[in-house]
Design goal:
single chain, 120 residues, mainly beta, four-stranded antiparallel β-sheet, 57% strand
């Protein structure tokens, strides 16, 4: 079993910043792709950013230049630095991780989600 625990969400004014963290624990041999998605009320879940184990990144057009994804492989942790936040960034943010268990089985897990609200 693998658990992903997110932190760092909250309420911030437009133009402000937040940093999300997501740490995985449990039956993990190695992590591969990690990333963040978000889901606003009444909308489908959408990709925000992804990062490979080697550090290759991919961003949604709506967050390019404002958000930065990074990871610490030794800690099985992925971060999302969010700057210049806009009201339209308001959503529940979910992290995910792919990898292998210690039994060499592939896994794909999601975090429980953390609320980000951008409002004055």
């Amino acid at each position: 079993q693998v658990q992903l625990v997110e932190s760092g969400g909250g309420l911030v004014q437009p133009g402000g910043s937040l940093r999300l963290s997501c740490t995985a624990s449990g039956n993990i041999l190695i992590s591969s792709d990690m990333g963040w998605f978000r889901q606003a009320p009444g909308k489908q879940r959408e990709l925000v950013a992804t990062i490979t184990r080697g550090g290759g990144t991919n961003y949604a057009d709506s967050v390019k230049g404002r958000f930065t994804i990074s990871r610490d492989n030794a800690k099985n942790t992925v971060y999302l630095q969010m700057n210049s936040l806009k009201p339209e960034d308001t959503a529940v943010y979910y992290c995910y991780m792919k990898g292998l268990t210690k039994q060499y089985s592939p896994f794909d897990y999601w975090g429980q989600g953390t609320q980000v609200t951008v409002s004055s």
